[in-house]
Amino acid sequence: MREATAASEVLKRLFDGLELVPGDAVEQIEHGAKALGVTQSIGLADSRETINAATARLRKACHNLQRAMFLLAVTDGESRAEIARIWRVSRQLVSRMVKEKRQLQADGHEVVDHGS
Has this prediction a pTM greater than 0.70? Predict the structure, then answer.
């Protein structure tokens, strides 16, 4: 859960920092600047790469958190069908995510959930 929170905070800071970028871009274009020149001058490509990386981190953290919650629910004796109903996902997804962790452990990998 800490990883999901940290990842979402990073993404929020990135988006907050971009608030002025669209306005800067419009102003430059209105003054006759070319699109690629504007892209370079305000670092839009760098921002895109950074935001994509932060978004991927958040997706992974959310996946790990959801998997951890599924595993806890199974440990608590809940059925996969009930977990799926509460989470509004398919029973097959619950089974796959529970199996994913067990398969990693069976293959000898140490599984550490940073998302919990």
Answer: no
